[in-house]
Amino acid sequence: METALKEDIWIFPDFDSLGFAGAELFMAAADQAIVSQGRFSVALSGGTTPLGLYHILGTAYHGRSAWKQTHLFWADERCVPRDHVLSNYRLAYEQMISRLTIPQQHVHRIKGELTPEEAANAYEEDLKRHMGEKGLPRFDLILLGLGEDGHTASLYPGSASSSETEHLALPVFSETTMNWRVTLTLPVLNNALRIVFLVSGSSKSGIVREILGQGRRDRYPAGRVAPSQGSITWLLDKDAASGLEESAS
After folding, report:
1. Sheet architecture: strand order including 194-199
2. Per-residue confidence (pLDDT) for residue 97, from 0 to 100
3. 235 near 198, Cβ under 8 Å?
4. Phi, psi (5° rounding) for residue 235?
5. pLDDT digit string, tens, across residues 112-131
6. One-letter-per-residue 3-state SS of the chain
7. CA-to-CA distance for 243 and 248, rounded, in angstroms?
8. Rounded Cα distance, 36 and 164, in Å
9. How far apart are CA 46 and CA 74, in angstroms?
10. How far is CA 20 from CA 83, 168, 235, in A?
11. Rounded distance, CA 228 to CA 186, Å?
12. pLDDT tens figures, 19-47
């Protein structure tokens, strides 16, 4: 018997308030996981939207004891060195990780300096070591973004990667940005306890309307994120959410 998707949509007046709400959700998930199982496993998102959230976590929440039991992973990464301007790891490190008391061995970055295949295989093995060889990894929280084309992580519409069911992580070539990436696969995303989408800007209003306002979810990888035993929270600023008002009118 299928269970209904547990999904909430939160709309904020600006980018900063979205970031603060995301930080509160992040720490609440961390506290809950640590109480129940002694550690917190989270996959971070790339892009510019989560930077405010990362900065808040690295400053306002830097003294929290939860960091010692936190394990950081990434939903996807570009195949570049960790200090490259396009590295998702670098962005998170500068805004958050460098300010925290998190053990180095708890930072499970995707090694983008390797070949795409080597990086994906190494990341998959790291996931198995941390979460067990049997079954799918279960993240306590995965942060995701939303592309204007409906992609999330590095799962693109029409690509074979968005239909992958065997691997936990895959190398993907982005025709949009013309670079290689490594991404978590959809089965891993859909096994998470909680998904949080962070979406900002008017350029995202059309795809937000398509997925959330008009129910055209199956057309897009982001719309196919539907954890069967978890929940989704959409954090939208008013510009990203503006298309929802058009759908309702």
Report:
1. 6-12, 231-237, 194-199, 141-144, 40-44, 70-74
2. 97
3. yes
4. -105, 110
5. 999 999 999 999 999 999 99
6. CCCCCEEEEEEECCHHHHHHHHHHHHHHHHHHHHHHHCCEEEEECCCCCCHHHHHHHHHCCCCCHHHHHEEEEECEEECCCCCCCCCHHHHHHHHCHHHCCCCHHHECCCCCCCCHHHHHHHHHHHHHHHHCCCCCCCCCEEEECCCCCCCECCECCCCHHHHCCCCCEEEEEECCCCEEEEEECHHHHCCCCEEEEEECCHHHHHHHHHHHHCCCHHHCCHHHCCCCCCEEEEEEECCCCHHHHHHHC
7. 9
8. 31
9. 8
10. 27, 31, 11
11. 12
12. 999 999 999 999 999 999 999 999 999 98
What is the Cα–Cα distance from 40 to 102, expressed in whole angstroms?
A: 12
Structure tokens at 43: 């996959």
The C-alpha atoms of residue 58 and residue 128 are separated, in whole angstroms, by: 28
- What value does the mean pLDDT take over residues 209-234? 93
For 92, the token pair is 């998170």
Residue recorded with tokens 């998702």: 88
User: Exposed (0-12), middle (13-18) or buried (19+): which is 174, by Cβ within 10 Å?
Assistant: middle
Report all structural domains of the chain as residue ranges with CATH numbers, in order of start.
18-175 (3.40.50.1360)
Q: Token pair of 47, please?
A: 């892009």
Question: Rounded distance, CA 96 to CA 52, Å?
Answer: 10
Closest CA to 127 of 84, 91, 170: 170
